[in-house]
């Protein structure tokens, strides 16, 4: 063969290969397409379309790590290319989702070979993080009864509480989670949202009408929080206004325990306790009245005559002989010795 023939033959082969690569690098998941894209990209590293097609092919074939690496390399070469940035964000999202699914699958498989308590914990955790808020809350509590410090369960319970509107309890849950994983940015974000939501409840406690404010105060109260005393005093005021003095006094006393030197709190406590103390002093100072003797009832077995007879001395009880009653004597009649007269009788 002449050198000229060999030259033209090689040129035809190169053109054929180039066309084959162009046809095969279409973003499909076949091994041939991936191989073709890789070869062409090696020759044209700045070709953004080739790189994105290769990434699509890798994602379809579930090679997520390779897809992310390919796109990251492209951004290193072309840092201002927005198409590569968007594709990289999409690839990372898919990568994280698949990692989560794989993690759950492995946990489920591991639970089948673990002790009963471990299997239950995995089941509760899965339900805690996937069911509706009310049902998830029950599952979270069941799981926390087995593993009280399980971070995933703590966060899941706080999420359920937040969705149910119990923002203060949710805030406490996020605080606990943040103490376990202080560098977890997602927990910090949820903690900030819960703090903001609770502040809205505190504002209602301090500003709304009587009934709504009292409910808001009860929901917002957190022991040890900087606004605890303010909320307790507000509770006392609302309860006192509605006539519930015992509950109002209890709220004021709690606030007084936190700050014994607060004059406003001390005055509120005094206003509810001094009337009671004054009444107690008046009751203690009143003279005690001795009971009046009750008249003795007469004994029915004794008659009045028997009672009198019992008091007579024995010598005075001699037999008395009845005496005849003296009759009054009529005055003697007087006769006149004068001469008799006719028609007159003496």
UniProtKB/TrEMBL annotation:
User: In its keyword annotation, does this UniProt entry include Repeat?
Assistant: yes
User: TPR repeat ranges?
Assistant: 229-262
Query: What segment(s) does the record annotate as region Disordered?
Result: 99-119, 283-346
Keyword terms of this UniProt record: Repeat, Signal, TPR repeat
Q: What does UniProt give as the signal peptide span?
A: 1-22
Superkingdom field: Bacteria
InterPro entries, alphabetically?
A: FKBP6/shu (IPR042282), TPR-like_helical_dom_sf (IPR011990), TPR_rpt (IPR019734)
The record's section on SMART domains has: TPR
Q: Which residue windows does the record flag with biased composition (Low complexity)?
A: 313-330
State the PANTHER family in the record: INACTIVE PEPTIDYL-PROLYL CIS-TRANS ISOMERASE FKBP6
Q: What is this protein called?
A: Tetratricopeptide repeat protein
């Amino acid at each position: 063969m002449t050198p000229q023939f060999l030259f033209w033959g090689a040129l035809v082969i190169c053109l054929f290969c180039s066309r084959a690569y162009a046809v095969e690098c279409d973003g499909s998941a076949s091994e041939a397409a991936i191989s073709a894209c890789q070869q062409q990209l090696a020759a044209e590293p700045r070709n953004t379309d080739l790189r994105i097609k290769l990434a699509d092919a890798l994602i379809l074939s579930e090679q997520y790590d390779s897809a992310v690496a390919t796109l990251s390399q492209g951004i290193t070469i072309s840092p201002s290319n927005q198409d590569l940035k968007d594709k990289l964000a999409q690839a990372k999202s898919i990568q994280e989702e698949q990692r989560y699914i794989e993690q759950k699958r492995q946990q489920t498989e591991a639970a089948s070979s673990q002790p009963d308590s471990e299997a239950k914990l995995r089941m509760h955790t899965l339900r805690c993080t996937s069911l509706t808020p009310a049902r998830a809350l029950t599952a979270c509590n069941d799981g926390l009864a087995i593993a009280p410090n399980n971070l995933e369960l703590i966060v899941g319970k706080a999420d359920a509480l937040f969705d149910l509107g119990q923002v203060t309890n949710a805030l406490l849950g996020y605080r606990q989670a943040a103490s376990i994983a202080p560098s977890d940015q997602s927990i910090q974000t949820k903690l900030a949202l819960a703090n903001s939501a609770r502040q809205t409840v505190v504002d209602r406690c301090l500003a709304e009408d009587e009934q709504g404010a009292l409910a808001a105060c009860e929901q917002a109260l957190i022991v040890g929080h900087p606004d605890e005393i303010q909320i307790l005093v507000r509770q006392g005021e609302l309860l006192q206004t509605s006539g519930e003095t015992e509950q109002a006094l209890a709220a004021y006393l709690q606030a007084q325990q936190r700050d014994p030197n607060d004059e406003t709190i001390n005055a509120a406590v005094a206003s509810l306790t001094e009337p009671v103390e004054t009444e107690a002093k008046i009751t203690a100072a009143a003279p005690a009245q001795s009971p009046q003797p009750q008249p003795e009832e007469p004994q029915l077995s004794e008659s009045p005559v028997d009672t009198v007879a019992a008091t007579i001395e024995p010598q005075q009880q001699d037999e008395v002989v009845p005496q005849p009653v003296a009759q009054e004597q009529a005055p003697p009649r007087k006769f006149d010795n004068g001469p008799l007269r006719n028609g007159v009788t003496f």
